[in-house]
Amino acid sequence: MFKFKINPWMYLFITFALFIIAGTFLLKMPFVKHTEGLSYIDALFTATSAVCVTGLIVVDTSGFNFWGQFFIMLMMQVGAIGIMTLTSSLLLFLRGELDFSRKFMVAKISDSLNIQEAEKVLVIVVIYTFVMEFVGFLALSYGFFLDGFALKDAAYYGLFHAVSAFCNAGFSTFDSSLIGSNSIVKVTTMFLIVFGGLGFYVIYNIFMTFVSNERIKVHTKIVVYTTFALIIAGTLLIFMLEKGTMSILDSFFQSITTRTAGFNTVEIGGLHIVTKFLMIVLMIIGASPGSTGGGIKTTAFYIAVVSMYSILRGNKRIVIFNRNIALINILKAYALISMYIFFLVIATLLLLYFGDFTFMDTLFEVTSALGTVGLSLGITAKLGIFGKLIITACMFLGRIGPATLITMLLLKEKTSKLSYPEEKIILG
Amino acid sequence: MFKFKINPWMYLFITFALFIIAGTFLLKMPFVKHTEGLSYIDALFTATSAVCVTGLIVVDTSGFNFWGQFFIMLMMQVGAIGIMTLTSSLLLFLRGELDFSRKFMVAKISDSLNIQEAEKVLVIVVIYTFVMEFVGFLALSYGFFLDGFALKDAAYYGLFHAVSAFCNAGFSTFDSSLIGSNSIVKVTTMFLIVFGGLGFYVIYNIFMTFVSNERIKVHTKIVVYTTFALIIAGTLLIFMLEKGTMSILDSFFQSITTRTAGFNTVEIGGLHIVTKFLMIVLMIIGASPGSTGGGIKTTAFYIAVVSMYSILRGNKRIVIFNRNIALINILKAYALISMYIFFLVIATLLLLYFGDFTFMDTLFEVTSALGTVGLSLGITAKLGIFGKLIITACMFLGRIGPATLITMLLLKEKTSKLSYPEEKIILG
Ligand SMILES: [K+]
Ligand SMILES: [K+]
Fold it and tell me: What broad class describes the main subcellular location of this protein (chains A, B) (predicted)?
């Protein structure tokens, strides 16, 4: 009998493809209505955008009836949890089918978790997600209520935006995203985005330092420091470049949301061109590994910066927080970044060729899709069939690409590598 | 007595700065005339562009009288020879002042040449330069003569363009560069650009395989293969993207010239936006180390690609042409590339902020300046004072940056590194 063998890393690819296909058909169900109607390509685009927590839209989310919006919320949740628990579920999935030596390799799949921890992570991540979203739901509902919505509507919008913000999805039931919202809504959203974007390695690590006496890992330090530094630098730069026409709160909001969430409290198209370029850079850097966010990731960015600095100072070893980082680990970070830039260039060339948009609009759109950010200068809805397919592919690759690559790399590692003494940094 | 100590790598910086300052004052001499007059900032810009063999112009080169054009030609020649013989001259300069251990370190300055070879290289490079330029001068003069110029004019234009092409400078005495030239001019120019862009390591190595029995180095193979591959790929892509509106010869020409020379045989502004983006990518990659060209260099690009591919295949060692490449050598390549991208981003942000140009025009201009290419979508002449200073800084940094960095890195290497068994690749 023919036996089809699934590589562990294909598991992720297939799972997400199935999620998207299922989502596409759900959106085409007869009881799902959209004011403008919904073609198959638009349903595919919307499902991909939701499952890959991107937030780019070709049709207004507000145009969907309850069921359409509900399915979008469901897809965001499933997509986000799916990535966050990838390691755990992958391990659980494989457990029964592997011989010991292979299991030993797979146990290393996350570079920092072992097979016994896998189930624990799964549980903690799910609990963490729902606790955060519940708190966010309460705060956002209150915020929307203050904005004059009826209690029932405020609760509904609160739930939708809590899920969307924590999952860093960026979908909004409002046509103009969060422009004009009050400070409670903005600040709650910012918190949800940041806590959703830390990644489950960090969440698990921090959780374990509280319950047992586990130490704070280097990975956690890198993520927290880099996230903090990027948010502050982004806020100040955006505020400065916009020369005071944007409030410091909105600059703060935009700095946080640009790296992967995709909400906006100001009109992106109206920003200064230099601010747009800065946002492209922030979108490329992105969020942290094992999170709902995309981009080249904070850890890879941090490693690239530190390694550049060390090399230029003539150092032979790369030391991060008093730990030697294996050179091969650094090369992996660069390989991931190179791969990302390669896809960015190819996708930009394709969209420039098939689309009819300016260079800024095109690069912004591709970066946003590949980084699963969801911000747009307004060309998403104007995309032709090729353009929609290119952006759909970008969202999919941007979402599962890095995790797949890293999983693939770990499975290919020779067992001899297991004795490496240096501390490893998680990249994808 | 106060003794000012010059680091070897500062030598390069200061030498070029002095060349530029001298050039600026030469262009302001009373017997140098320009039809439009010439301000100090424009003289500085022109001198920087000539010494750094970039070719960007704020005033028409045709507007200069003989002396102006002569000084430009002189500056291109001095700037090009200056970089090409950097290693040699640096070694000669330092020889008398160093104790033995330091001399031993400096002897490694080029990663592949020793101190005994330094003088030999200097001689060979100078002879090579003048032989190539003389042959080019004859062929180009013949070409211009066929185009209907009087013999004396044809010879003058032949000389100017031979120097400009071999030095990859891109200056032309014609306002529309080489648009409308005949095939002899185009093909000769292409040959001069390619042979000028190989870099003196390659020239010296190939020369030595003929006179003695020296082997072809890995560095030489990488440069030749990568140069060849990039030219072919660029030609086909440009031809394809322009959908047959550009001849295959012009596509070939543009593919060669874009990576660093900066001549054009077609109107760059009239190209498809996707072709412009492709040209930005080619300009970023650039020419080869130790050559008159700029960019991140063919070797760094090759190493990045091969290392990405190896890492993604799960390899622990990076093998190039059956040689192990030290991981630290690869990290140096990435450090150089990161540095380049860092400057590219900063300069683009600055020019977007101070200029009032589109994103494409701005990025194209900055890439062209930093890669010392000299192509422009037409904004160079419209730059304000800040814009001119930014682009001047880009040309200077793009020209001396990589070589300076690599020199600095080599001087900082600990002697223990001298025992490394792997073959090294020259980067900057
Ligand atoms: K998003
Ligand atoms: K040039």
Answer: membrane
Residue A348 contacts residue B277 (beta carbons within 8 Å): yes
Dist. CA A184–CA B321, nearest whole Å? 61
Measured in angstroms, the CA of A413 and the nearest CA of chain B are apart by 6
Q: Which band of pLDDT confidence, cut at 50, 70 and 90, is reported for residue B370?
A: very high
Q: Look-up: residue for tokens 């940056």?
A: B401
Q: How far is Cα B366 from Cα B372, in angstroms, rounded to an integer?
A: 10
Residue A341's pLDDT is 93
B89-141: per-residue pLDDT in tens?
554 444 444 333 344 444 444 444 555 666 677 778 888 888 999 999 999 99
Kindly report the number of other CB atoms within 10 A of residue B101's CB atom.
Answer: 9
Measure Cα distances from B338 to A306, A309, A385 in Å: 11, 10, 36
A275 vs A267: CA distance, rounded Å: 12
Nearest chain B residue to A242 by CA: give it: B353
Q: Model confidence at B389, in pLDDT bands (50, 70, 90)?
A: very high
| CB B394, CB B370: distance < 8 Å | yes
How deeply is A127 buried, as exposed, middle or buried, from its count of CB atoms within 10 A (0-12, 13-18, 19+)? exposed
- The DSSP element (H or E) to which A325 belongs, if any, is strand A323-325
Q: What is the dihedral of CA A213, A215, A221, A222, to 10 degrees?
A: -130
Q: Strand, coil or helix: what is A53?
A: coil
Report the chain B residue with the minimal C-alpha distance to residue A241. B353
The answer to whether A282 and A234 have CB atoms below 8 angstroms apart is yes
Q: Is A71 helix (H, G, I), strand (E, B) or coil?
A: helix
Q: Hey, what long-range contacts does B350-357 have (CB within 8 A, 24 or more apart)?
A: B350/B386, B350/B390, B351/B387, B351/B390, B351/B391, B352/A273, B352/A274, B352/A277, B353/A241, B353/A272, B353/A274, B354/B384, B354/B386, B354/B387, B354/B390, B355/B379, B355/B383, B355/B384, B355/B386, B355/B387, B357/B382
Report the gap between the CA of B301 and the closest CA in chain A (Å): 10
Question: What is the CB-side half-sphere exposure of residue A137 using CA atoms within 13 A?
Answer: 14
Q: Is A399 on the interface with B (CB under 8 A)?
A: no
Cβ-based neighbour number of residue A123 at 10 Å: 12
Residues A49, A55: contact at Cβ < 8 Å? yes
Chain A residue with minimal CA distance to B345? A281
Burial A47-69, CB ≥16 within 10 A → b, else e: bbbbbbbbbbbbbebebbeeebb
Instruction: Enumerate the H helices of A242-297 as residue ranges.
Output: 248-258, 273-285
Span A300-317, average pLDDT: 83
Q: A352 and B273 in contact by Cβ < 8 A? A: yes
CA B290 to chain centre: 9
Nearest Cα to B365, choosing from B337, B402, B336, B394?
A: B394
**Residue range A389-411: mean pLDDT, rounded:** 79
Neighbours of B142 (CB within 10 A): 16
Q: Which residues does chain B have within 8 Å of residue A308's beta carbon, measured at their own beta carbons?
A: 334-335, 338-339, 342
Q: Please tell me the predicted confidence (pLDDT) of residue B285.
A: 92
Residue A420 pLDDT > 60: no
The DSSP output letter for A269 is G
State chain A's mean pLDDT as an integer. Answer: 80
What is the b/e burial string over A307-328, where b = at least 16 CB atoms within 10 angstroms of the residue's CB? bbebbbeeeeebebeebebbbb
Q: B341-357, pLDDT tens digit by residue?
A: 999 999 999 999 998 89
Q: Does residue A273 belong to the interface with chain B, where contact is any CB pair within 8 Å?
A: yes
Residue B84 is predicted with a pLDDT of: 63
